[in-house]
Amino acid sequence: MSDTMDEATLQSALSNPQNLGEMPDADAVGTVGSPDCGDMVRMWLKYKEKDGRKVIDKASFQSFGCQTAIAVASLATELIRGKTKEEALQLSAAELSAPLGPLPPMKIHCGQMVEGALKAALEAEQGAPAPTAPASAPVATGPTLADALNASGKSAGKIKIVLQS
Ligand code: FES
């Protein structure tokens, strides 16, 4: 069993990251940070109508983080194009990072951070237009991303990801 990442895919995603940068006309933005490593990923989403369905037209990201997070974010922004919000919400960190192969244990949180940023952006679009909310604390309504991440963080032992504004 191989537990190593696909270095060629990693390097190619890093040398030519897709959809890198802020999206000024985005419909939604989501940001998460990891207190463990201090890294952060922000993702922007833009929707469009297609065949009567609202789908993701494009996505972009910024990452103040490690190479793995950048590579996964690059892959993720490509993967989610054309998907509905519901379809995108189904995607796990493992699916988003699949082209890289299995992430080594110390890099699993990098993929989870990208998943968290994506889900934060997907959820942000449902409610208030987020960016100016006075939030450094996690959003506290209902079963939110923060709840889910906290729960999974506990069961996984060490992973803790927080929402940031
Ligand atoms: Fe923290 Fe990769 S080491 S995101």
What would you note in describing this structure?
Helices cover 36% and strands 19% of the residues. The protein has 165 residues and is an alpha+beta fold. The chain has a four-stranded antiparallel sheet. β2 and β3 form a beta hairpin. FE2/S2 (inorganic) cluster (FES) is lined by residues 34, 37, 39, 65-66, 68-69, 109-110, 113. FE2/S2 (inorganic) cluster binds next to α2 and α5. One of its GO terms (molecular function) is iron-sulfur cluster binding. Residues 13-123 form the NIF system FeS cluster assembly NifU N-terminal domain. It comes from Brevifollis gellanilyticus. This is NIF system FeS cluster assembly NifU N-terminal domain-containing protein.
Estimate what percentage of residues fall within beta strands: 15-25%
Question: What profile does the largest beta sheet have?
Answer: 4 strands, antiparallel
Shape: globular
The Cα radius of gyration reads: 15 Å
Number of helices: 6
SSE class: alpha+beta
CATH architecture: Alpha-Beta Complex
Please, how many domains?
1
Across the major sheet, the strand order is 3-2-1-4
Give the quaternary arrangement of the chains.
Answer: single chain
Helix and strand pattern: HEEEHHHHHE
Distance between the termini: 40 Å
Protein name: NIF system FeS cluster assembly NifU N-terminal domain-containing protein
Pfam family, one: NifU_N
Organism: Brevifollis gellanilyticus
GO molecular function: iron ion binding; iron-sulfur cluster binding
Provide tags for this entry.
alpha+beta, binds FE2/S2 (inorganic) cluster, 6 helices, Sufe protein. Chain: A, 4-stranded antiparallel β-sheet, 165 residues
